[in-house]
Amino acid sequence: MRIFHVLLMTVLLLFAPAMARAQGAFGGGAPHIAAELAVESAVPRPGEGQASGTTIAFSMTPEPGWHGYWENPGDAGLGMTVKWTLPKGVAIGPLRYPVPETLLISGLMNHVYEGPYGVLAKLTVAPDVPKGTKLPIRVRADWLACTDKVCVPEGAELALDLMAGDGSVLPGSRAQFDGWRSHLPRPLGSEAAYAMADGRLRLSIPFPAAASARDVHLFPLADGLIRYAAPQSVMRQGDRLLIETEAGQGMKSGPVQAVLRTGDHVGFLLTARPGAVAAVRPATFQTVLLALGGALVGGLLLNIMPCVFPILGLKAMKLARAGGDEHVVRREALAYSLGVILTCLALGGLLLGLRAAGAAVGWAFQLQDPRIILLLLLLVTAITLNLAGLFELSAFGGGDRLADKGGASGAFWTGALVAFVATPCTGPFMGAAMGAALVLPLGAALAIFAGLGLGLALPFLALAYIPPLRTRLPRPGAWMGRLQKILAIPMALTALGLLWLLGQQRGVMAIMLGVGAALILGAGLWWLGRRQRHGRRGGLAMICAALILFAGAAILLPAHAPAAAASAHGVPFDEARLASLRAAKKPVFLYFTADWCLTCKANEAAAIDREETRAAFKRAGVTVMVGDWTNADPAITRFLEGQGRSGVPLYLWYAPGREAQTLPQLLTPATLTALVP
To answer: Do domains 2-183 and 571-673 have the same CATH topology?
Structure first.
């Protein structure tokens, strides 16, 4: 049936022009995938080669519920076919497709696009074409539009009228094409290896462990490499991604190409050659147990971190006050532990959900939002002032309405606070456990997050359920007040750390805003403390004022991160600054890198970030400029294409008054130090 399905759609598409004219039988004459022909520059410059010519695009917009196909459509469907009619001197390169999506229908795997997408190609004009020459571009395009139940062949005659000119690009066109280019697969830069045995394909792909990879899927460019609908097992092993799946039929040995998806419309074009590849083994019970053990121990060690220990100390003092009332102590211990574990589960579940939705986030992801950092800063400031004795905070001091109900509610929310504040602290054993949680199945991942919470709650549980430990606590007395004030010191250090983090994300203005908000909050809490000492209330008014303060400060936070400044590795890539340095006849070493590029990182460690290289460049007054392409910066993409490159690494040396010299892709310190006298 699968072969019949593909053959039927092939026959339908062969008659697409005739059927498109009679499309009313299918869609009332309106296409289900609207197509437009767009060009980045309406005045392409003659003489520019494929590396720097203008870009032309098919802008495709499917109706809701309909989809188009990638160049290799999978088990069913057909990609787009085009037939160009071009004036003399104009050439158009091959079509370049964005990273596709997967769609499984009735056991058939389809490589599709369910939303708007752009198919790009390079347009070049010969050097002998005079400027001002009209360039009529005509194309017949045919494609297949499908739902999960029906397929309709569609097509259109599309046209553009261009004129040879200076190659200028309007800002709106540049932004539109940059958006399309950001979804194209980027060359990986390092070759992969594959092996076939017992009907299985095993693929080993160089990919740094620190680089983000989620919703991973392999899309072969040619038939026969894999069975498209078969599950793909993915495992990270150091700086490699291992993929295992069912091999296709009729595959011949030799180099193969594929697109590796590592996020939402983000991926890499890779080449793989036959080689030795270890088998991909799914996570075993022992692996889960090791990760769970690491999470337990890591959570236990978090209790001695500066951001957690003060709160734990207060809870221990509250146990000392409780004396021998086992019922009260154990009830509070369970409530506290439940607050810790549920908060860890909520943060872990949200983290996994965000990653599944395509966000590049990791543990402590909430600290990537400066508003959350500001909220934590104000909360930690309030705790610090409470520990210092400026005012009474009922959640810790006892004697409040929560404590009157047995203290379980207060203990629960204290546990939630501990878990939330503890996430920026990364203790021993936690790194491996959290890394494992991001690649294990959902149930195992959530168990690890719960294990982290249990480890964090273990000291309080031990004190509550092992009476000999609790009896060793000192008797209540004046020492408790002194210890509480001492515990304010590490909490104040935590506030300073949050203030620094806020500055890292939003600059000096954000630090000033955070200090100002903390001072205003401190003044308000001093007012509250004075009222409490005179037996008057004011807690509700203070809570409302604090919320208004936070809302106002969050609105005033700078909207953007501060501009990147020079670092130990170099200044950020800027084409205008590069032109200025060259005009001033300054030597420049420009290199392009990415976190996912193993060759790039090897060269940086072995040659660029070496003391002898830095010393030689400093003596010669060389400006080191770095283009970080980890997130597919459009400006870097255009510059790379202008240099005839489609990927990284790229190393350029600009001697004073000379054109760029392209350096080899494997560098040594001697290669770089020899560039300068």
So the answer is: no
Give the CATH fold of the 2-183 domain: Immunoglobulin-like (2.60.40)
Residue with tokens 């739902």: 147
- Helix, strand, coil percentages for the chain (3-state, nearest 5): 45, 20, 35
The type of residue at 64 is P
CA distance 342 to 415: 9
| Rounded Cα gap, residues 588 and 514, in angstroms | 39
Total residues found in the chain within this entry: 677
Mapped onto helix, strand or coil, the DSSP state of residue 212 is coil
Tokens encoding 558: 């700078």
Contact 603, 566 (CB under 8 A): no
The continuous run of DSSP H or E covering 327 comes out as helix 326-356
What is the rounded distance in angstroms from the CA atom of residue 554 to the CA atom of residue 370? 8
Taking the chain, what is the end-to-end CA distance rounded to the nearest angstrom? 71
Which tens digits make up the pLDDT trace of 362-410?
555 556 568 878 888 888 888 888 878 888 755 333 333 433 344 677 7
The two tokens of residue 404 are 């009157």
| CA-closest candidate to residue 59, choices 138, 147, 119, 140 | 119
For 28-40, how does the pLDDT look when each residue is reduced to its tens digit (9 = 90+)? 567 899 999 999 9
φ/ψ of 43, rounded to 5, equals -130, 65
What CATH number labels 192-274? Answer: 2.60.40
- Map out the domains of the chain as residue ranges: 2-183, 192-274, 285-556, 571-673
Q: Where are the beta strands (DSSP E) in 75-133?
A: 81-85, 90-92, 101-105, 108-113, 117-125
